[in-house]
Amino acid sequence: MGCKNSKTVPTENVDYRNVPDVNENYPPPYVPDSTRAELYDDDVNTDIQKKIDAMPKGTDGSYKTLLEYLSSGATKETQHVTAIYLWMKAQDYNSAALDLVKEGDTPRGYMKMIKEQRGDFTTFFTIMCRRSGIPCNMITGLGKDGSYYIGMPENSMQTKWNAVYTDEEWHLAHIEWAMQNRDSPDGAEDQNFYFLTDPDDFSTICYPTDFNWQLLDQPMSKKQFLNLPYFGPHFFMMNTSILSPKSGIAKAANGKLDVEIGFPKRHMENIDVSSVTTFIGRLNEVNNTETSLNNLDKYVFVNRKASKFIFEVTFPTAGRYLFDVYGDYGDKQVKKDKKSSKKPGKGLHRLCQFRIISEKEFEDGDIEPLPDSPENGWGPGPRCRRLGLVPLTHFESCIYMKPGEIRDVYFRMDNDLDVTCQLTHNFLPVYELVEQIECTKGDSEVQIRVRIPEMGLYALKIYCREAGSKVFDEACVYLIRQREKARLPEKHRDKMLRNRLEYHIKNHTTEAALIDALDVYKCYNVPDHGEFVQGQDKLKQYWEIKRELRSAIKGRNVNVVKKWIARAKRSTYQQDLQDDINEAERLQDNLNKMKGHRHPMAKMDPQTIIEIRNYKRPPKIVHDVMSSTYLLLGERKEYVQDWEDIQYLLGKHGSDNIQKRVVTRRPEDIDIEIADDADSLIQPYSIDKCRDVSNGICSFYKWNKHMIKEVRQKDQSERERMEEEMQQLEDDVELHDAKDESTLSDDKKGEHVVYKGRGDVNDLEKDVNDVKDDPGNVKSEATDEHGESEIKNRHFMSPSKPPETKQVSPVAYAGWKPADIQ
Fold it and tell me: How far apart are CA 789 and CA 781, in angstroms?
C-alpha cells in the first residue's frame, strides 16, 4: 500500500491469530532524528479525521479496502500510520453489532475479538501496519500507566507497546494506553500523548526488555527507570520540570521536604496546582496497619513563585508516603463541572509522583498545621484573575509579618466588584481577629490592611462578587507567617561531634564508644537536634538489654533468661537484637528440658546421697554412674577410679556439695573428650537398669546423658563454625592467588621484565647445582627439598612487589653481631 513520495514496500502476510512480536528482517533499532512535534501535524490530522468520518459504509469489510482508503491522499508513511491510529480510536469496540460479525481475517472480525478479550489493540495496530507494508514490532517490558505508584511490584507493570518504522525512522507508540478514555474530551488530549512519543519522554514511562528499543544514545538501566518519579502525560504537555528532588524516592530531613516544580514563566499566571499526600505505612511495616492520616492537606503549603511552585511538605509522623502533584491550565478549569473538585487533585491532572521516607517522629506541639487548606490553592492564582482581581503588590502565596506590624495589600479591579476579607487562625477565634483587618475600596483598586496580634500562622482570605450579586466567591488566600531566624553555619567541632554520635547511633559499634560520644557531645554543649535523646535511647533499649541478655545466657538461669527475652522483644531495636534473642530462646528451651534432670538433683533428699555413699562394695553400675558424674563435674580421671575417692567427694559440704555443683555446671565448661570418657562409662546401662538399683542413681544417670548431649551439640556447632571460617579463609587465599597469577601473567606480556635481587641472574643455575651437590652450603634452616626455591628467592624478587629487606639487629651497627657472643 504505497503513499505518494514514499518507497513502495511489499505488504506482509500476517496470521491474525498468531502475530510474532518481532520480525528479524526489519531494520535494527536506532535513534530517530525527527521529533513528535515535527511528525504530529494537527492540521493534517484534522483532515484525516474528516476523511475517516466520511468513510463509506462497508469500507472496513476487509483489510485491503480499509487500508487503501486510509492511505489515499497520504504523502508520508507517518500520515498513513496516523490514519490507522485515528480510525482505531473512532471505533466502538463495545457495539452490539460486533456480536453479529462472523469471525475471520477482517478488521471487524478482530474488533469482535477485542470485545471478547481475545485480542488487543497493540496486535491490531501491528496487523494493519504490516499489511500496509510498514514495519511494526511489538515491544514488551515494564510500564507506568495511570494506576502506577512508586514501589509497585514489577509483575504488575508488565505491558506491550509498538515500535513502527515510518519514513526510514523508528518511532514509539503505546496504542493500548492511547485507546483508554478515548471517548472523554479530557482523555483524548491525554491519550494522544502516547502516539509517536519522543524516546526521551517515552523512556520515563516504559522500559523495554531489550534496552536497544529505548532508542536513546545513552539507555538507562532498570534501576534508574524504577527510581524515577512517575510522570503523567500532562507533565510533558505542560513543559513541566522537576527542580527538586531529582529522584523518585527521597528522604525528608527532620520530617520536612521541599518539592519544587518548574513551569514556563509565561504560563505561570494561568496554572493551577494542587497535591495529595498519602500515608503508606510505618517504616518497618510490611502491611499498612494505619489506613490514613487525617488532614494531611494542612501540612502542605504551596508557594507560588515567578517560574515555579514550591511545595513545603511536613510529615507529622515517621513513615512512608506517596506525594502526588496535580496541575492544569486555569482557563480549562472553567469548563469543568463541580464534580471534578471531588476527585483527587481537585479535578486537575496528575503530573508526577514521589515516594518520600520520613524518619522524624514529632511530639505533640512540635509542629503547627496550616490554618486552612484552600480549595483553589494558596496565593493569587488564575481564579483570582478570572474573578476580576489582579494583584499589584503581593504576587507570591506568602506574606511575612511580625506581631504589631501593618501590611497593605493592593489589587486592581477589572470589574465593578464588592470585596471583603477575613483573617483566620488555628486557635484564635475569628471574632477576635475582625479588628485586625480593614478593606478599603477605591475606583479601580482595593486596599487590604492587615496586622497580626501574636506569633503564628494566619490565613488572609479575600472574597469578591459582582456588584448586585448575593454570593461571595473566594478569590485569593495568603498565608501569613514569620521568617525563621537565619541559622549560622555549624561549627566544625560541633558538626564533627554530631556526626560521630550519629555514627555510633546508626552502627552497633560498642557500648563504651557510644557512652564516650554522648559524654563529649554533652561536655562541649553541642546544640541538640534530637541525637542526644536517640543515643540515650539506644543505650537503654539496645546496649543495656544486649548486655543483660548475654549475662543471662552465661548465667543459665531460666527465669532471668525469660525476663530479658521479654524485654528484648519489647525494645525498639528488636530486629537488631534478634540473633541474641534466638540464642536465648534456644537456651531457654534446653533449660526447660533439663528441669526434669536438674530440679530433682537440687531437691534430692540428702539421705539418698548418704545411702549411695554408704555402699562398701557398690554395684558396678553405681560406681560407673558416679564416676561419670564426677568426670563431668571436672574431677580428674585418676581421682574417680576408686570407690573410696568417690565416697570422699560425696561427703563434701558447702560449695563442693554434689547437688550444688550439678545445678551450677554448664556445658561450656566441659571438653568434648571429657564428655566422651563419661559417656563410655555409662554406655552399657539404660535408665531402667539404673531405676532397678536406685532412684538416686537414676537421677544422676539422666543428668549425665543430657549434659553429654548438650556438650556434643555445642562441639558440633563450634566445628561447623570453624569449618565455615576455614572455607572462607581458603576462598580468600584462592582469590589472592588468582590475583597474583593474573598480575604475573600481565607482567609476562611486557617486552622486558627487570628482576631485582642480590646476585647475578646468570649464576642461578650454578647456585642450584651447588645446593644439590652440597646442601650444607645453605643455611641450616633450609632443607634439601627447599634449597632450590630458597636460592631462587635469593636471586629473584617479584616484579610487582618491592624487595623485602632483611631485618638488621640494632646492635649490628656497633661493629659486632649477637652471634659473636659466646
Answer: 13
Cα torsion 116, 121, 125, 130 to 10°: value is: -60
- The average pLDDT across 46-50 equals 91
Query: How far apart (Å, rounded) are the C-alpha atoms in residues 526 and 334?
Result: 55
Categorize the per-residue pLDDT at 486 as very low, low, confident or very high, splitting at 50, 70 and 90. low
Please report the pLDDT score of residue 384 as a whole number: 92
Strand partners, 163: 137, 172
Q: Which residues pair with 136 in a beta bridge?
A: 164
- Flag whether pLDDT at 606 surpasses 90: no
The length of the chain in residues reads: 822
What angle do helix axes 578-593 and 595-602 make, rounded to 10 degrees?
A: 60
**DSSP output for 122-153:** HHHHHHHHHHTT--EEEEEEEE--TT--TT--
Q: How far is CA 763 from CA 759, 787, 792, 796, 797, in A?
A: 7, 15, 10, 11, 15
**φ and ψ at residue 69, rounded to 5 degrees:** -70, -45
Query: What percent of the chain is predicted at pLDDT more than 90?
Result: 41
- Secondary structure string (H, E, C) spanning 563-601: HHHHHHHHCCCCCCCHHHHHHHHHHHHHHHHCHHHHHHH
- Check if the beta carbon of residue 206 is closer than 8 Å to that of residue 145: no
Cell numbers placing 203: 523512556
Instruction: Tell me the C-alpha distance between 321 and 314, whole Å.
Output: 11
Contact (Cβ atoms closer than 8 angstroms) between residue 666 and residue 653: no
pLDDT-derived band at 489, boundaries 50, 70, 90? low
Distance CA 190, CA 236 (A): 10
Q: Where do we find the cell 553405681?
A: 622
Reported as half-sphere exposure (CB side, CA atoms, 13 A), residue 785 has a value of 0
- Bridge partners, residue 424, by sequence: 459
- Read off the pLDDT of residues 705-744 as tens digits, 9 standing for 90 and up: 888 988 888 888 888 888 888 888 887 777 777 666 655 5
User: For residue 722, with 0-12 CB atoms within 10 Å meaning exposed, 13-18 middle and 19 or more buried, which class applies?
Assistant: exposed
Q: Looking at residue 667, what is its pLDDT?
A: 82
What is the reported pLDDT for 807?
A: 44
Residue 59 · residue 106 · CB < 8 Å = no
Q: How far is CA 583 from CA 551, 588, 631, in A?
A: 12, 9, 27
Model pLDDT for residues 388-441, shown as the tens digit of each residue:
999 999 999 999 999 989 999 999 999 889 999 999 998 888 888 999 999 999
For the chain, the maximum distance between any two Cα atoms, rounded to a whole number of angstroms, is 128
Tell me the residue type at 405: E
CB 250 within 8 A of CB 357: yes
Strand order in the sheet with 195-197: 195-197, 169-173, 158-166, 136-143, 206-208
- Between the alpha carbon of residue 344 and those of residues 185, 309, 354, 630, the distances in Å are 19, 19, 16, 78
Decide: helix, strand or coil at residue 776. Answer: helix
Q: What is the pLDDT of residues 37-47, one digit of tens each?
A: 888 888 888 99
Grid cell listed for 291:
489506613
In 3-state terms, what secondary structure has residue 366? coil
Name the pLDDT band for 791 (thresholds 50, 70, 90). Answer: very low
Distances (CA, A) of 706 to 245, 594, 622, 709: 62, 7, 18, 5
Dist CA 645 CA 631 (whole Å): 13
Residue 787 in grid coordinates: 634449597
In the block, residue with C-alpha cell 481475545: 118
What is the arithmetic mean of pLDDT over 455-464?
94
Q: How many CB atoms lie within 10 A of CB 133?
A: 20
For residues 576 and 572, give the distance between their C-alpha atoms in angstroms, rounded to a whole number: 9
- H/E run at residue 256: strand 256-262
Residues 181, 119 contacting (CB under 8 angstroms): no
Question: What is the rounded average pLDDT for all residues in the chain?
Answer: 82
**Rounded Cα distance, 536 and 522, in Å:** 12
Which residues touch 562 (CB under 8 Å, ≥6 apart)? 588
Contact (CB, 8 A) for 252 and 357: yes
